[in-house]
Amino acid sequence: MTPIFTMDINFYKYQGTGNDFIMIDNRQSLFSKNDTKLIARLCDRRFGIGADGLILLESDPEYDFRMVYFNSDGGEGSMCGNGGRCIVAFARDLGIIRDKTRFIAVDGPHEASIEGDLISLKMQDVNNIDRNSGSFFLDTGSPHHVQEITELESYPVKEEGARIRYDLYGEKGSNVNFVKPEGENQFFVRTYERGVEDETYSCGTGVTAVALAMHGKRNDHPEEYVIRTLGGELKVRFRWTGDHYAEIYLVGPADQVFKGKLVC
Ligand SMILES: N[C@H](CCC[C@H](N)C(=O)O)C(=O)O
Questions:
Q1: What is the mean pLDDT of residues 107-124?
Q2: Is residue 71 in contact with ligand 1, taking CB distance under 6 Å?
C-alpha cells in the first residue's frame, strides 16, 4: 500500500445519528483540499478510514472557525447539518469553544450551542418550498427532494433515490428524502445522499427539509418535530413568520468515536 502522507496529521472520527465524518484540524493548512482522490480514499470503508464525508476545521478572521465539508466521493459538498453538529463538538473537544459558537460554512454563518449531550445548530432561513405532484423540493443549505412513502421500512431507498436524483435533478442532482408520518408530530425519514450516492443513516439538512415540507403541507401543526432516522432521533424546531421559515434549529447528539494518524 502506498503511503498517504509523509508527515503526521491527526484525524478524528465523529458521528451524529449514524452520519459519520473524518474530522481534521486544518488550522495550519497542512491538509491539501484539492486532492479529491485522496479524500475519496480516506472515506472508503474498505481501503480507507471509512466515512460519509470529510470535514476540515479551519481558522477564520471573523468567526470561531470555518467548516469545509467534502462528500465521500471527494467533491466539496453543500451544507451538512449532522457534520455541522459534529464540528461544533470537535471545536469544543479541541478547546476552541465552550458551549456556544458562531462559525462559517459554505452556506453562510451558523450559531450553535451545546447542552449536555445535545448540540443545537441554527440553520439558514428557508424562503421557498416548491410543491410538485406528490413531492416537495427545498434548499436547507443543501438541495432536498421530499416524498411521502407508506411502506418506508421496506422501501428500496438506494435504487429509487438514485433514480430521482438523476431523472429529476440532472447532473447537479439533489439529496432525496422519503418520509412516513409516525404520529402527531413525529416522522420516520430515510435519505439517499448525493455525493455519497447511497442511503446514509441520517441526514441533518434532509430531516430539516422534511420538517419544513411537512409543516408547509399541514399548515396548523406545531413548530417542533421529532424525526426518527436509521441512526437515531433528531429534533427540528422553527418559526413560520407567515412568509418564510426562521429560527430553524437542528438538535441532536454528536460523538467522537476514535482518533488516529494519517500516516502509513
Ligand atoms: N449529510 C449531510 C448532507 C450533506 C449534503 C450533501 N450530500 C450534498 O448534497 O452535498 C447532512 O447531514 O446534512
A1: 98
A2: yes
| From 43, 80, 86, 264, active-site residue | 80
As a whole-number percent, the residues of the chain with pLDDT over 70 amount to 96
Residues 6+ apart with CB under 8 A from 196: 52, 53, 71, 72, 73
Is 10 labelled as part of a ligand binding site?
A: no
Other Cβ atoms within 10 Å of 264 Cβ, number:
9
For ligand 1, is residue 229 a contact (CB within 6 Å)? Answer: no
Q: Which residues contact 235 (CB under 8 A, 6 or more apart)?
A: 224, 225, 226, 227, 249, 250, 251, 252
CATH of domain 129-252: 3.10.310.10
Q: Is 203 one of the annotated active-site residues of the chain? A: yes
ipTM summary value: 0.94
pTM of this structure: 0.95
Same fold yes or no, 10-122+254-261 and 129-252: yes
Instruction: Please state the domain extents for the chain.
Output: 10-122+254-261, 129-252
| Separation in Å, CA 20 to CA 33, 75, 169, 241 | 19, 16, 25, 34
Per DSSP, 94 falls in state T
| pLDDT tens per residue across span 157-205 | 999 999 999 999 988 999 999 999 998 899 999 999 999 999 999 999 9
Per CATH, domain 10-122+254-261 is 3.10.310.10: yes
Nearest to 214 by CA among 140, 106, 129: 129
The mean pLDDT of the chain is 95
Q: Count the Cβ atoms, other than its own, within 10 Å of residue 79.
A: 23
Cβ neighbours for 153, distance < 8 A, ≥ 6 positions apart: none
C-alpha of residue 193 to centroid of ligand 1, in Å? 6
Instruction: Please state the rounded mean pLDDT for residues 203-224.
Output: 92
